[in-house]
Amino acid sequence: MNATIRARFDLMTVTLILTASVVCAQDDLVVSNVAAQPRAGTNLVDVTYDLETVDGSPVAVSLWLSTDAEGTISHHCQAVSGNVGDEVMPGAGLSIVWDAGSDRPGIDSTTCRLRVTAYVRENIDGFVLIPPGSFMMGSPPDELGRFEDEVQHMVTLTQGLYVASTEVTEEWWDEVMGSGTSTSQLPQNYITWDMGVEFCNELSLREGLTPAYSVEGSTYHVTWNREANGYRIPTEAEWEYACRAGSQTAFFNGPMSYLECEPVDPNLDQAAWYCGNSGSMRHEVGQKQPNAWGLYDMPGSLFEQVWDTYQFDYENLPAVDPTYYEGPGSRRVVRGGFWSSYARRTRSACRVDFEPAGPHYADGFRPVRSAE
After folding, report:
1. Domain at 162-370, CATH homologous superfamily
2. Which of 124, 208, 204, 209 is nearest to 165 (CA)?
């Protein structure tokens, strides 16, 4: 097995193309002199780079991989160590060690590219900044439990995104929309898409931001102002990108072993509240394992509202920043499953469409905000 991996890995080293990029950065942030060298006799790659900032403050650095001829950066390298992560100080000759054999076993491509990405994280309490990038949306044909509306296709998101680290809690909802007396950390359920829009606009106004949505009172037709800096509901593509956090398996922490409630799926048990472990009730947010970007409860807990109305063949939408909205009354999409869902319904690629109706005990949401 190791020989096979190394043989394929040697194929990669012959044609390795290196690029550097700066994401969500100011003019004083520069990545340069990127170089990579496979370590002989191993599956490790040594990556070096220089990082400059005017004020010398730490920044977030990540490593990304492309294996196609177009250079689509589709894999967030997670088996990494060294000068990588959230608090990297600027300097020359910084280094990252990537365990390609662990992260991408059996890699077999003649057009591999690595990208070092650096970006400044603005601190927004309760939110995590995720970088723009490309990913494979949907599920492969052989994924256990997949549905036919999950055709895999490459999607590119061009803008960084602040994503709430948890679903909106009863305390947070009450603070913005109610009396401000609740202290409950249970996820707020019975949330319709319209209620999510109202929450995002109210939260934006409270923080002096431009609301993302305008609403026509008679028809409740919602228009999204994409230039606004306020909070909003994520698009379906943004939701899956955030959920996956660079992963390509059924769950962000690995494949799925069991379709339903029992036996308890070992990976899902670590990451989510679902029918196999919830005891048929909601649980406080943030109790399960977060994904690689620090987001909790993306699978399970509550279904999460997204902006898009449902399109079966979503692979035919634009490949860059795709959205689909037909207006009031159209079929909606929720993602992630909830505390009583079968395991297969909590997979990162799973889509659930429904006719808009009143509030439901399984539905919640988490707001996002476009990075400026």
Report:
1. paralog of FGE (formylglycine-generating enzyme) (3.90.1580.10)
2. 124
